[in-house]
Amino acid sequence: RGFRCLHGVDGSAGMLERARSTGLYQQLRLCVLGREPLPAPAEHYDAVTVVGALGEGQVPSSVLPELLRVTKPGGFLCLTTRSNPSNLRYKAELEAALGQLQRSGAWQKLLAQEVEYWERATSEEESTQGTGYISGVVYIYQKCPVPHLEEG
């Protein structure tokens, strides 16, 4: 899709090694999202994605301002979370934080799309209507440009 320079972060050295083995990334760094700042300058990336990490007991929703910090004005953020029963409280907190940032003018929501068969369920209780899968949501936001101050 036109993105050629991919950087990645993960809190696990083992996952970084797996990512390195793909040959897709130009840079991989150890970083625990939500506990430390991202290893990138402000307004550095055209797009930031977080897939499979925004969930109960993983990356806190308080990481959102840090994701915005490293995204260029007009850049995109693609975030995902699961909709299984054990993640519903987290999902509600995440959506409240997403909405607050939109109301403050930090970004604009472009998409919030439910995905019925997001990933395989690990238990029958987590399965969506007995399908063996759990559902999830993909959110796409665009960071708002910084308004220009009029001279005079």
Mean pLDDT equals 92
**Proportion of beta-strand residues:** 25-35%
**Which superfamily, in CATH terms, is the homologous superfamily of the largest domain?**
Vaccinia Virus protein VP39
Number of domains: 2
Provide the CATH architecture of the largest domain: 3-Layer(aba) Sandwich
Coarse structural class: alpha/beta
Strand line-up across the major sheet: 3-4-6-5
Helicity, as a percent range: 10-25%
| Radius of gyration, in angstroms, nearest whole number | 17 Å
CATH topology of the largest domain: Rossmann fold
- What is the name of the CATH class of the largest domain? Alpha Beta
Number of strands: 6
Characterize the overall form: globular
Main beta-sheet strand count, sense and barrel state: 4 strands, mixed
Which sequence of SSEs, written as H and E, runs from N to C? EHEEHEHEE
Low-confidence stretches: none
The termini sit apart by 42 Å
Separate helix tally: 3
Topology:
Elements: E1 7-10, H1 13-22, E2 27-30, E3 45-50, H2 64-69, E4 71-82, H3 88-103, E5 107-120, E6 133-143
Parallel strand pairs: 1-2, 3-4
Antiparallel strand pairs: 4-6, 5-6
List keywords for this structure.
152 residues; alpha/beta; four-stranded mixed β-sheet; two-stranded parallel ribbon; globular; SAM-dependent_MTases_sf
